[in-house]
Amino acid sequence: MVKLKLGVLISGRGSNLQALIDAAADPSYPAEIALVISNKADAGGLARAEAAGIATKVIPHKEFASREAFDAALDKTLRDAGVGLVCLAGFMRLLTPGFSQGWHDRLINIHPSLLPSFKGLDSHAQALKAGVRFSGCTVHFVRPEMDAGPIILQAAVPVHDGDDEDSLAARILEAEHKSYPLAVRLIAEGRVKVVDELVRFVDGDFAAAALLNPRG
Ligand code: GRF
């Protein structure tokens, strides 16, 4: 099996990176992590990659005169490593339109809300303020606009009375760790197509039932 080579971009603790590392440890998983790049030298995720024997590179954004120059360095590093799919996993830098266009439909992100609701950094606070009964996470192809692009997969989790940002974030994070490896697998299996800026599945398996919260 020829595996899809992933480049994972992180800035922090890397729990989604860990979920990808764990999934890729299964020999039948159709993707492998070629390289982990962090813009921060102290990102906790770097140690996770090193522990798994994965190549890492720190590219500090502060050392570059412009976003374009930083993104060009990212781009070159990913291409030199033979990366076929770039996975943003808690990468806290906005990418230039040139970068995202250069990786069109080969660049994905995971965001902790049901997009297009609650874009941006404080998505859990936004969800609590809106009083929604479900939130969740979204894996999507990246387009130049922040937290936008064809949606590949979403997981819904209930919002409970009494939730605060931490409890909601923890519940969503658990769903993230299932969602990201699944989305990558579907892409690697060639089952995800973008048609007119919407994702269409080849042989999709869709949940039939409605979720209710509260149940009664
Ligand atoms: C996750 O909640 C992800 O959805 C968001 O940033 C967070 C990264 O967490 N984009 P981690 O570094 O993967 O633990």
Structural class: alpha/beta
**If you compute it from the alpha carbons, what radius of gyration comes out, rounded to the nearest whole angstrom?**
17 Å
The side-by-side strand order for the widest beta sheet comes to 3-2-1-4-5-6-7
Strand content: 15-25%
Oligomeric state, counting identical vs distinct chains: single chain
Count of spatially separate domains: 2
Total helical segments: 6
| Helix fraction by DSSP (H/I, runs of at least 4) | 25-40%
What is the CATH topology of the largest domain? Rossmann fold
User: What is the residue-averaged pLDDT?
Assistant: 96
Number of strands: 9
Bound molecules: 5-O-phosphono-beta-D-ribofuranosylamine
Q: What does this protein look like?
A:
Helix 1 (15-24) runs parallel beside helix 6. The mean pLDDT is 96. The chain folds into 2 domains: 1-103, Rossmann fold; 111-216, 3-Layer(aba) Sandwich (Rossmann fold), CATH 3.40.50.170. The longest helix is centred in the last third of the chain and has 24 residues, at 165-188. It is an alpha/beta fold and 216 residues long. It is globular, with a radius of gyration of 17 Å. It is 32% helix and 24% strand. It has 6 helices and 9 strands. The strands form 2 sheets. A 7-stranded mixed sheet has the order 3-2-1-4-5-6-7, covered by helices on one side. A two-stranded antiparallel sheet has the order 8-9. Residues 12-16, 89-90, 110-112, 137, 173, 176 line the site of 5-O-phosphono-beta-D-ribofuranosylamine (GRF).
